[in-house]
Amino acid sequence: MSEILRQPAEKSHAAELAALAAGDTGPRPPGWALSPRLVVTYLMGGKAADGTAITPKYVGDKRLIETAVATLATDRALLLLGVPGTAKSWVSEHLAAAITGDSTMIVQCTAGTDENQVRYGWNYAQLLAHGPSRDALVPTPLMRAMETGKLCRFEELTRMGSDVQDTLITVLSEKMMPIPELNDAVYAARGFNIIATANNRDKGVNELSSALKRRFNVVVLPLPDSADEEIAIIVKRVGEMARSLDLPAPKNVAEEVARVVAIFRELRSGSTEDGKVALKSPSGGLSTAEAIAVMVGGISQATFFNNGALTPETLAANVIGAVVKDPVQDRAVLGEYLETVLKKRRGFEGYYASLTDLI
């Protein structure tokens, strides 16, 4: 068992990538480790030429992944857009792993991200001792990706200030990064491109300028269409995460996932599944990712404090943590849902009792 908590995709799925590469006879764009067709196979699942089973990394419309891969084979950057929990970061990581074999060149965008973290920084000891030079320059993931012809990932691009976002315009337009302090520039090697992710529900969003938007091809990743599809995604990811954390997965995981998903989908949509009762929605998104976190938290609690039994009682606190982001508004929304819907629903008695006790 590895001591590393989480391996990058290219290491955790190294056997699958090697099997695909060994039988890959398709045309590859410059710098790509796999042909575009097999990149899609790696993301969507299938079989390698030698019969190796390729597990699906994304459950959804194959055409969206084909569009994303085709975009990265051109000189246009890719923007994965969607609400929280639509697997944007997951898809971004696996695309980078399959295309260049390195998903670690990543810039996590925040309100505090500045130009030095996007373009390049300086080793100030070297700078003071010898003045500006290439030895004193500290390359960012973006600069390293340009020099090596790989993909650079920008996570939550719209969290970064608009003026910092626009530092990417020259890189995307000219495929070069000027270094005015050295009267020099870094020119992108073939194979370089950018994958960015952004969500449209974040209250801290800084809209992309029209100039920057034009340089991205946007692929919108939707929430799962059906409850069955969402349940399948959650069961798969919960199983993977439980194994990585050495948590035994209880036998009733799928049943409890179905119940949690039913609660989340109704609160998220603002109506019951049959459409007969209108509901107030909480302030949070109640995404698929949050449902996964609820289940993993519940399994952990069941393992250590409930003799391994996954019950509504072990999940209730995690459900409240996901739903109640605003302690006043969301608590009232959940309370109303419990009394008008869950109290009368067969099979959810344990959730009604446990959630009512905690709120």
From TrEMBL:
<dbReference type="InterPro" id="IPR050764">
    <property type="entry name" value="CbbQ/NirQ/NorQ/GpvN"/>
</dbReference>
<dbReference type="InterPro" id="IPR027417">
    <property type="entry name" value="P-loop_NTPase"/>
</dbReference>
<dbReference type="Pfam" id="PF07728">
    <property type="entry name" value="AAA_5"/>
</dbReference>
<feature type="domain" description="ATPase dynein-related AAA">
    <location>
        <begin position="78"/>
        <end position="216"/>
    </location>
</feature>
<dbReference type="InterPro" id="IPR011704">
    <property type="entry name" value="ATPase_dyneun-rel_AAA"/>
</dbReference>
<protein>
    <submittedName>
        <fullName>AAA family ATPase</fullName>
    </submittedName>
</protein>
